[in-house]
Design a protein that fits this description.
Blueprint: H1 2-35, H2 41-64, H3 69-75, H4 77-89, H5 96-107, H6 112-119, H7 131-141, H8 145-155
Helix pairs in contact: 1-3, 1-4, 2-3, 2-4, 2-6, 4-5, 5-6, 5-8, 7-8
């Protein structure tokens, strides 16, 4: 949990720059995606995949060897900050809950593997082995209605962004 608390401090500091930029980048990139008939979404998705695989891989290793969670968690913070910033600056194109799920994947670091397993429906949040993740998700989503709604929809087995 130490790495996650440090991560949230770093994300808070970077949000001072990212949030004002977010309005500009989502508008401009949204226009570009529309002008390219959605083809620009392909490279954006590929970049997200390249950013998320190391996060999931390192988090999987942490889930298998628990004592590595703090050292790997601390070393991975810069990578996770880049991934989180990338997701925040990309246009959601109407998939707001999908974007929120990606943000939660990054913000749950170094429990990202556990979040991913919950996200794909293979590990319920109420499971006894997910106590740390449950506490972490509660701390992250507390008071953030969009994140709470996304977690509740995943927990209920509903698909995200049904209006898209």
């Amino acid at each position: 949990m130490l790495a996650n608390r440090i991560l949230h401090g770093v994300l808070f500091v970077t949000s001072i720059v990212v949030i004002p930029l977010q309005f500009v980048t989502t508008l401009l990139l949204g226009w570009l995606v529309s002008l390219t008939f959605g083809l620009l979404l392909l490279p954006m998705s590929l970049i997200w995949i390249l950013l998320s695989f190391p996060i999931l891989g390192a988090s999987w290793l942490c889930s298998k060897i628990e004592w590595l969670r703090t050292p790997i968690g601390l070393v991975g913070i810069p990578w996770v900050v880049v991934a989180n910033t990338f997701v925040a600056l990309m246009p959601s194109m109407g998939e707001i809950e999908g974007r929120t799920s990606k943000l939660l994947l990054a913000e749950c670091w170094p429990y990202s593997w556990e979040w991913w397993m919950f996200r794909i429906g293979k590990a319920p949040l109420a499971a006894p082995e997910n106590v740390s993740l449950r506490k972490l998700v509660h701390r992250i989503t507390d008071g953030v209605p969009l994140m709470e709604r996304t977690v509740n929809r995943i927990a209920a087995g509903e698909s995200l962004d049904p209006n898209v």
